[in-house]
């Protein structure tokens, strides 16, 4: 039984936001298209406007579906690091992160912040390091979303094992925060954003980790690969075999001491496979609610993204479910664990 378990959803996005926030972004884009237009000031948004969007959507569903807390970040498809220059990206990231912060202040018992990074295609990561530090140390955020392809689907960034990323990784370790690997919207028509691009990016990240030796250099790094790990669990034998062909160690020691998957898999057979293949210590409960798939599955009558239902149906011990629903998240996000302990949880 899971009625008395504390449940943390590791993967939530602020998908429905006050209109003024969206208007600000459109003014930014207009300024990009015509620099003679003034750069817009950040939107003025009241607490009541934030409450209206949150209480009718994420907060309502968290309560209806039996969770307690969501690790919350800006809407992934709207992060758009491929839009504008470094200044635009920084201004947009700060606006999105400040909005997340306000949600966490209005509902501190329910939402923990994870930040968007001001990445730009081909750009340095100095702004991302600065914004991560601001969000963690000043705003109390517990992690970040790291985009392995800021180009929006053209794949011209160095692999995640490249020294290009090392300064950012050092800051992650210093601050003791993990990163969820998460791309944004696709500007390449060959990639549907949520059906193709997201899953491809998850899979690419895992293969990059196999090919490199990142975790020898940074043994304390922690990454969450969302959407159930992309194609990885389904092709686990392929990746084990490729690691062997590349003369790399077993995945259990080479990658899986540092990499975790969430449960954003929207049917029971997929969840069954995930738990059959991946050690439960590497799985965090997540739903991506409200996210890529919001409808009701006509085969079950349940919402596709109500992933708690799938886990409830697994024949696994309650102590394992407790790890999936909260224990693993508290281990991977130690700053969240500290915040919860301070509240007596």
General description of the model:
The model has no long low-confidence stretch (mean pLDDT 96). The protein has helices at 19-33, 47-55, 58-65, 86-106, 126-137, 166-175, 193-211, 214-217, 236-245, 251-254, 268-277, 307-312, 318-332, 334-342; strands spanning 8-14, 69-74, 111-115, 143-146, 179-181, 223-225, 259-262, 283-284. The longest helix is centred in the N-terminal third of the chain and has 21 residues, at 86-106. Helix 1 runs antiparallel to helix 4 (86-106). Strand 2 (69-74), helix 4 and strand 3 form a beta-alpha-beta unit. The chain is of the alpha/beta class and 345 residues long. The protein has an 8-stranded parallel beta sheet with strand order 1-2-3-4-5-6-7-8. The relative contact order is 0.13. It is globular, with a radius of gyration of 19 Å. It has one domain (8-342): Metal-dependent hydrolases (TIM Barrel).
CATH architecture classification: Alpha-Beta Barrel
Q: Report the portion of residues in β strands.
A: 5-15%
What is the CATH topology classification name? Answer: TIM Barrel
- Which overall shape is indicated by the principal axes computed on the Cα atoms? globular
Number of domains: 1
Distance between the termini: 19 Å
Q: How is the biggest beta sheet arranged?
A: 8 strands, parallel
Rg, rounded, reads 19 Å
Q: What share of residues is helical?
A: 40-55%
Q: Give the beta-strand count.
A: 8
CATH superfamily: Metal-dependent hydrolases
CATH level 1 class label: Alpha Beta
Q: Class by helix and strand content?
A: alpha/beta
